[in-house]
UniProtKB/TrEMBL annotation:
Protein name as catalogued: Methanogenic corrinoid protein MtbC1
Organism: Simiduia aestuariiviva
Taxonomy, superkingdom: Bacteria
Pfam families in alphabetical order: B12-binding, B12-binding_2
Molecular functions (GO terms): cobalamin binding; metal ion binding; methionine synthase activity
Domain B12-binding: 225-346
Amino acid sequence: MHNAHELVVLEAHSDAIKRFVFDEYFTLHPDKIAWRNDPKIKAICQDDIAKHLSFLVSALERDSEIQFINYCLWLRGVFQSRDIPLAHFTDGLVLLRRFCAESGQGLSKSLFYLDQALAALADDSRSLTIVDTCTQPDIPRTESYLSAVLRGQSRDAWEGLQQAINSDLSYSAIGTRIIQPAMYQVGSLWETNKITVAQEHLASSITQNTLAKTLAFVEYETPNDRMALFSCVEGNHHVIGLRIVADSFEIAGWDTTFLGANTPSGDIIAMVREIKPELLGLSVALTQQLPTLKALTDDIHREFGADRPFILVGGLATNQLGGMLDNIQVDQWIPHAQAVSTDLKI
Ligand code: B12
């Protein structure tokens, strides 16, 4: 595990950190001293500090300061959209940093992450960094696929995938190691104004077609009598990633139902009621859609209790947060389609 020493220290001192940050807050803000003895405020503050700490720990575990910075930038958006002063958050980070600096425990990586995050929060031009979860892109095939879809050459795109099929790349590997990195490139080219919206739409539609063709070459496992339902949460129009995941389940023998993009929460619940799937796979692409995921999963827990399906989530927004889905009642997060066959814990 990365940064093992710092993780042990932070874990061992977590209660001390919560106390330190809470108490020192009133040294920074003596005018707020009345809050100190309010048990409700104390619980909320300590809960917040515990959350920041758990995201810091998770980022250290993965050795990824970007993951912690993304959490902070995401939270900045949440605070701004609710008109909550950002200082409530940054003061906590500053005090957490002070604890690390004064502890004398060699928390240099933690200090580095906190400094990077504070600098990013102070910089209005910084926004969430897109993290591609595909760690093993098939670079030559990705590049030629990308070039083909940007030129609108669906035949070239398909020929490249046929070669991948012939070299025994599985459907989920094609989806994760070629399509995913190529589409992420499409996203950053669009974001930086290097391609038009039309080119991005073209890339998406060619991709949906080539994926469907690829399926014709797949060998399906014997049906396993297990049923899974897949849907994008309401408001999410990004359907390609979920399609690859749902197809991977179907190939593995599951009986899958795929509702596609932007399904109203009430209709997802109605479908759960009707077909009673063992697993519900939900996709969330933008962090703004996380509250919808929370409300939907709360409703599912409330309505179905112990009879509810296993709730699996994924998608760009969950990947940005490294799967740390604070207060959202899901059973598992999986970062990409290829990991489903090895990581699913149902
Ligand atoms: C194509 C695209 C669109 C298309 C989608 C078409 C379609 N039919 O799907 C359209 C035009 C609809 C679209 C719209 C928008 N988009 Co868009 N889009 C993209 C793009 C370029 C590719 C998406 C894609 O197909 N990725 C490839 C798949 C394979 O990857 P994936 O989705 O991550 O899926 C993998 C894993 O995440 C995981 N996974 C996914 N779902 C699930 C579910 C489960 C259960 C599990 C286990 C795993 C899992 O497995 C998948 C396979 O390995 C991305 C770029 C990007 N980085 O993704 C931008 C991107 C996501 N879009 C973006 C934006 C801003 C928008 C818009 C707001 C633009 C606008 N102003 O209108 C709207 C919002 C629409 C909405 N409300 O959802 C931004 C988001 C930035 C951010 N905040 O993070 C991105 C990142 C582009 C960018 N670089 O700026 N978009």
